[in-house]
Amino acid sequence: MEEKDLIISAKRGDQLAFAMLFKNNYPFLVKYLIKITMNPDTAEELAQETMAKCVEKIGLFNGKSKFSSWLISIATNLYIDQKRRSKRERNWKAQEEAFRRMKWHLESRNEEWNDALSALGKLKDEIRIPIVLKHYYGYSYEEIGEMMKISPGTVKSRVHNGIMSAREELKLHGEQESAAAGTRSSR
Amino acid sequence: MANRKVLPLEHDHQDENFLAAVKKIEDGLESLEENVPVYTPDLQFFEHLVAEQKQTMKKKLIRDLAIFTVAALLIVSSVLFMLYQLPAVFFILQGFVTVFIMAYSTVSFVKQVNGT
After folding, report:
1. φ, ψ of residue A64 in degrees (nearest 5)
2. Do A166 and B36 touch (CB under 8 A)?
3. Which of A22, A55, A84, B28 could be disulfide-bonded to B46 (CB atoms 3.0-4.6 Å)?
4. Which branch of life, at top level (chain B) (predicted)?
Protein backbone atom coordinates (compact mmCIF):
# COMPACT_ATOMS: atom_id res chain seq x y z
CA MET A 1 0.00 0.00 0.00
CA GLU A 2 1.38 3.42 -0.92
CA GLU A 3 1.54 6.33 1.51
CA LYS A 4 -1.26 8.16 -0.29
CA ASP A 5 -3.61 5.18 0.09
CA LEU A 6 -2.60 4.76 3.73
CA ILE A 7 -3.46 8.40 4.42
CA ILE A 8 -6.87 8.03 2.75
CA SER A 9 -7.60 4.90 4.80
CA ALA A 10 -6.35 6.59 7.99
CA LYS A 11 -8.67 9.53 7.36
CA ARG A 12 -11.55 7.03 7.14
CA GLY A 13 -10.55 5.77 10.60
CA ASP A 14 -8.53 2.66 9.68
CA GLN A 15 -6.31 1.95 12.69
CA LEU A 16 -4.00 -0.41 10.78
CA ALA A 17 -3.33 2.26 8.14
CA PHE A 18 -2.46 4.73 10.91
CA ALA A 19 -0.15 2.19 12.54
CA MET A 20 1.62 1.47 9.24
CA LEU A 21 2.08 5.18 8.53
CA PHE A 22 3.56 5.71 11.98
CA LYS A 23 5.82 2.66 11.80
CA ASN A 24 7.21 3.80 8.44
CA ASN A 25 7.89 7.33 9.64
CA TYR A 26 8.92 6.63 13.24
CA PRO A 27 12.74 6.45 12.72
CA PHE A 28 12.69 9.63 10.63
CA LEU A 29 10.64 11.46 13.26
CA VAL A 30 12.73 10.31 16.24
CA LYS A 31 16.00 11.14 14.48
CA TYR A 32 14.71 14.62 13.69
CA LEU A 33 13.64 15.10 17.30
CA ILE A 34 17.04 13.89 18.57
CA LYS A 35 18.66 16.59 16.45
CA ILE A 36 16.50 19.38 17.81
CA THR A 37 16.20 18.24 21.44
CA MET A 38 19.71 16.76 21.72
CA ASN A 39 18.15 14.20 24.03
CA PRO A 40 17.09 10.69 22.87
CA ASP A 41 14.62 10.16 25.75
CA THR A 42 12.82 13.46 25.15
CA ALA A 43 12.82 12.65 21.43
CA GLU A 44 11.03 9.33 21.97
CA GLU A 45 8.45 10.87 24.33
CA LEU A 46 7.77 13.70 21.89
CA ALA A 47 7.47 11.27 18.97
CA GLN A 48 4.66 9.44 20.78
CA GLU A 49 2.90 12.71 21.62
CA THR A 50 3.27 13.78 17.99
CA MET A 51 1.60 10.60 16.78
CA ALA A 52 -1.26 11.05 19.24
CA LYS A 53 -1.75 14.61 17.98
CA CYS A 54 -1.61 13.34 14.42
CA VAL A 55 -4.53 10.93 15.06
CA GLU A 56 -6.52 13.93 16.31
CA LYS A 57 -5.62 16.23 13.40
CA ILE A 58 -5.48 13.84 10.42
CA GLY A 59 -8.60 15.49 8.99
CA LEU A 60 -6.62 18.71 8.57
CA PHE A 61 -3.83 17.11 6.52
CA ASN A 62 -4.34 18.36 2.96
CA GLY A 63 -1.68 16.20 1.27
CA LYS A 64 0.16 19.19 -0.25
CA SER A 65 3.32 18.33 1.67
CA LYS A 66 4.80 14.93 2.45
CA PHE A 67 3.40 13.13 5.48
CA SER A 68 6.85 13.18 7.11
CA SER A 69 7.02 16.98 6.71
CA TRP A 70 3.63 17.28 8.36
CA LEU A 71 4.82 15.11 11.25
CA ILE A 72 7.93 17.29 11.63
CA SER A 73 5.76 20.38 11.68
CA ILE A 74 3.52 18.98 14.46
CA ALA A 75 6.54 17.74 16.44
CA THR A 76 8.29 21.11 16.19
CA ASN A 77 5.26 23.01 17.46
CA LEU A 78 4.69 20.50 20.27
CA TYR A 79 8.30 20.89 21.39
CA ILE A 80 8.17 24.70 21.26
CA ASP A 81 4.83 24.74 23.15
CA GLN A 82 6.16 22.38 25.81
CA LYS A 83 9.22 24.54 26.30
CA ARG A 84 7.09 27.68 26.51
CA ARG A 85 4.67 26.12 29.00
CA SER A 86 7.26 24.66 31.31
CA LYS A 87 9.24 27.78 31.93
CA ARG A 88 10.98 26.06 34.78
CA GLU A 89 14.75 26.43 34.91
CA ARG A 90 16.56 24.19 32.49
CA ASN A 91 17.72 20.94 33.94
CA TRP A 92 21.38 21.22 33.07
CA LYS A 93 22.27 17.96 34.78
CA ALA A 94 19.79 15.96 32.68
CA GLN A 95 20.90 17.73 29.50
CA GLU A 96 24.54 17.02 30.36
CA GLU A 97 23.68 13.35 30.92
CA ALA A 98 21.89 13.18 27.54
CA PHE A 99 24.90 14.75 25.83
CA ARG A 100 27.20 12.20 27.47
CA ARG A 101 24.99 9.35 26.29
CA MET A 102 25.04 10.61 22.72
CA LYS A 103 28.83 11.05 22.88
CA TRP A 104 29.11 7.49 24.13
CA HIS A 105 26.93 6.22 21.26
CA LEU A 106 29.13 7.94 18.72
CA GLU A 107 32.41 6.93 20.33
CA SER A 108 31.27 3.30 20.65
CA ARG A 109 30.93 3.32 16.86
CA ASN A 110 34.39 4.83 16.43
CA GLU A 111 32.89 8.18 15.50
CA GLU A 112 34.34 11.33 17.03
CA TRP A 113 32.07 13.70 18.89
CA ASN A 114 31.79 16.66 16.59
CA ASP A 115 32.41 20.06 18.23
CA ALA A 116 29.71 21.47 15.98
CA LEU A 117 27.15 19.40 17.89
CA SER A 118 28.23 21.00 21.16
CA ALA A 119 28.01 24.42 19.52
CA LEU A 120 24.57 23.55 18.15
CA GLY A 121 23.47 22.30 21.57
CA LYS A 122 24.34 25.64 23.14
CA LEU A 123 22.03 27.55 20.79
CA LYS A 124 18.45 28.39 21.80
CA ASP A 125 15.78 26.02 20.47
CA GLU A 126 14.16 28.66 18.26
CA ILE A 127 17.54 29.12 16.57
CA ARG A 128 18.69 25.50 16.48
CA ILE A 129 15.44 24.21 14.91
CA PRO A 130 15.55 26.39 11.75
CA ILE A 131 19.26 25.60 11.29
CA VAL A 132 18.55 21.85 11.38
CA LEU A 133 15.55 22.21 9.05
CA LYS A 134 17.43 24.41 6.59
CA HIS A 135 20.89 22.91 6.50
CA TYR A 136 20.18 19.26 7.19
CA TYR A 137 16.71 18.65 5.77
CA GLY A 138 16.92 21.29 3.03
CA TYR A 139 13.55 22.99 3.63
CA SER A 140 13.11 26.49 2.23
CA TYR A 141 12.78 29.55 4.48
CA GLU A 142 9.09 29.75 3.49
CA GLU A 143 8.44 26.12 4.45
CA ILE A 144 10.23 26.53 7.78
CA GLY A 145 8.27 29.73 8.40
CA GLU A 146 5.01 27.85 7.84
CA MET A 147 6.12 25.03 10.13
CA MET A 148 7.17 27.34 12.95
CA LYS A 149 4.44 29.94 12.33
CA ILE A 150 6.94 32.78 11.84
CA SER A 151 7.83 34.88 8.81
CA PRO A 152 10.44 33.66 6.29
CA GLY A 153 12.51 36.78 7.06
CA THR A 154 12.64 35.85 10.74
CA VAL A 155 13.71 32.30 9.81
CA LYS A 156 16.47 33.67 7.60
CA SER A 157 17.86 35.97 10.27
CA ARG A 158 17.66 33.23 12.94
CA VAL A 159 19.55 30.79 10.70
CA HIS A 160 22.19 33.39 9.86
CA ASN A 161 22.68 34.54 13.46
CA GLY A 162 22.75 30.94 14.65
CA ILE A 163 25.47 29.98 12.20
CA MET A 164 27.46 33.07 13.19
CA SER A 165 27.20 32.08 16.88
CA ALA A 166 28.23 28.51 16.05
CA ARG A 167 31.14 29.86 14.02
CA GLU A 168 32.31 31.90 17.00
CA GLU A 169 31.90 28.88 19.25
CA LEU A 170 33.90 26.71 16.85
CA LYS A 171 36.56 29.46 16.72
CA LEU A 172 36.66 29.07 12.96
CA HIS A 173 37.56 32.72 12.55
CA GLY A 174 40.58 32.39 14.86
CA GLU A 175 41.74 29.15 13.29
CA GLN A 176 41.78 30.51 9.80
CA GLU A 177 43.44 33.75 10.88
CA SER A 178 46.18 31.90 12.76
CA ALA A 179 46.62 29.58 9.78
CA ALA A 180 46.95 32.59 7.52
CA ALA A 181 49.43 34.19 9.95
CA GLY A 182 51.41 30.95 9.97
CA THR A 183 51.72 30.89 6.19
CA ARG A 184 52.62 34.57 6.14
CA SER A 185 55.44 34.13 8.70
CA SER A 186 56.78 31.03 6.95
CA ARG A 187 57.11 33.04 3.76
CA MET B 1 37.83 51.77 -6.83
CA ALA B 2 40.79 50.84 -4.64
CA ASN B 3 38.49 50.39 -1.65
CA ARG B 4 36.08 48.25 -3.65
CA LYS B 5 38.90 45.80 -4.35
CA VAL B 6 39.40 45.12 -0.62
CA LEU B 7 35.75 44.65 0.33
CA PRO B 8 34.96 41.55 -1.75
CA LEU B 9 38.05 39.82 -0.34
CA GLU B 10 36.79 40.36 3.24
CA HIS B 11 33.40 39.07 2.24
CA ASP B 12 34.98 36.04 0.60
CA HIS B 13 36.89 35.31 3.78
CA GLN B 14 33.72 35.68 5.87
CA ASP B 15 31.76 33.48 3.47
CA GLU B 16 34.45 30.82 3.69
CA ASN B 17 34.20 30.79 7.49
CA PHE B 18 30.43 30.76 7.30
CA LEU B 19 30.40 27.83 4.88
CA ALA B 20 32.97 25.99 6.97
CA ALA B 21 30.69 26.36 10.00
CA VAL B 22 27.70 25.10 7.98
CA LYS B 23 29.75 22.13 6.76
CA LYS B 24 30.82 21.23 10.31
CA ILE B 25 27.22 21.42 11.52
CA GLU B 26 26.01 19.25 8.64
CA ASP B 27 28.75 16.67 9.35
CA GLY B 28 27.85 16.63 13.03
CA LEU B 29 24.16 16.12 12.29
CA GLU B 30 24.99 13.41 9.77
CA SER B 31 27.03 11.51 12.37
CA LEU B 32 24.05 11.77 14.78
CA GLU B 33 21.73 10.48 12.06
CA GLU B 34 23.92 7.50 11.33
CA ASN B 35 25.17 6.57 14.75
CA VAL B 36 22.48 7.19 17.36
CA PRO B 37 20.41 3.99 17.33
CA VAL B 38 16.61 4.26 17.13
CA TYR B 39 14.52 1.25 18.09
CA THR B 40 11.27 1.07 16.10
CA PRO B 41 8.49 -0.74 18.01
CA ASP B 42 6.35 -3.34 16.22
CA LEU B 43 3.09 -2.64 14.41
CA GLN B 44 0.96 -3.72 17.39
CA PHE B 45 2.46 -0.96 19.54
CA PHE B 46 1.37 1.67 17.03
CA GLU B 47 -2.10 0.11 16.68
CA HIS B 48 -2.48 0.20 20.44
CA LEU B 49 -1.35 3.84 20.52
CA VAL B 50 -3.93 4.81 17.87
CA ALA B 51 -6.73 2.90 19.64
CA GLU B 52 -5.87 4.54 22.96
CA GLN B 53 -5.82 8.01 21.42
CA LYS B 54 -9.18 7.42 19.71
CA GLN B 55 -10.65 6.30 23.03
CA THR B 56 -9.33 9.45 24.73
CA MET B 57 -10.79 11.63 21.96
CA LYS B 58 -14.16 9.91 22.29
CA LYS B 59 -14.23 10.49 26.05
CA LYS B 60 -13.28 14.15 25.57
CA LEU B 61 -16.02 14.63 22.97
CA ILE B 62 -18.67 13.14 25.28
CA ARG B 63 -17.49 15.32 28.19
CA ASP B 64 -17.47 18.49 26.04
CA LEU B 65 -20.93 17.71 24.65
CA ALA B 66 -22.28 17.14 28.17
CA ILE B 67 -20.82 20.47 29.38
CA PHE B 68 -22.24 22.27 26.32
CA THR B 69 -25.71 20.75 26.77
CA VAL B 70 -25.88 21.59 30.49
CA ALA B 71 -24.69 25.16 29.86
CA ALA B 72 -27.15 25.64 26.98
CA LEU B 73 -30.05 24.30 29.05
CA LEU B 74 -29.16 26.60 31.95
CA ILE B 75 -28.99 29.67 29.71
CA VAL B 76 -32.23 28.90 27.84
CA SER B 77 -34.18 28.09 31.03
CA SER B 78 -32.97 31.25 32.79
CA VAL B 79 -33.90 33.39 29.75
CA LEU B 80 -37.34 31.78 29.54
CA PHE B 81 -37.80 32.22 33.30
CA MET B 82 -36.95 35.90 32.97
CA LEU B 83 -39.25 36.38 29.97
CA TYR B 84 -42.30 34.95 31.77
CA GLN B 85 -41.61 35.91 35.39
CA LEU B 86 -39.54 39.13 35.12
CA PRO B 87 -40.25 40.65 31.67
CA ALA B 88 -38.81 44.05 32.67
CA VAL B 89 -35.43 42.51 33.55
CA PHE B 90 -35.54 40.52 30.32
CA PHE B 91 -35.98 43.63 28.14
CA ILE B 92 -33.36 45.60 30.10
CA LEU B 93 -30.93 42.73 29.55
CA GLN B 94 -31.77 42.64 25.82
CA GLY B 95 -31.08 46.37 25.56
CA PHE B 96 -27.87 46.09 27.55
CA VAL B 97 -26.54 43.26 25.35
CA THR B 98 -27.42 45.18 22.14
CA VAL B 99 -25.62 48.32 23.37
CA PHE B 100 -22.62 46.28 24.46
CA ILE B 101 -22.31 44.53 21.07
CA MET B 102 -22.60 47.85 19.20
CA ALA B 103 -20.02 49.54 21.42
CA TYR B 104 -17.61 46.60 21.17
CA SER B 105 -17.91 46.48 17.37
CA THR B 106 -17.36 50.24 17.07
CA VAL B 107 -14.27 50.18 19.32
CA SER B 108 -12.80 47.23 17.37
CA PHE B 109 -13.48 48.95 14.06
CA VAL B 110 -11.91 52.25 15.21
CA LYS B 111 -8.85 50.38 16.51
CA GLN B 112 -8.48 48.57 13.19
CA VAL B 113 -8.78 51.80 11.19
CA ASN B 114 -6.25 53.61 13.39
CA GLY B 115 -3.91 50.67 13.27
CA THR B 116 -3.64 50.65 9.48
Report:
1. -70, -40
2. no
3. A22
4. Bacteria
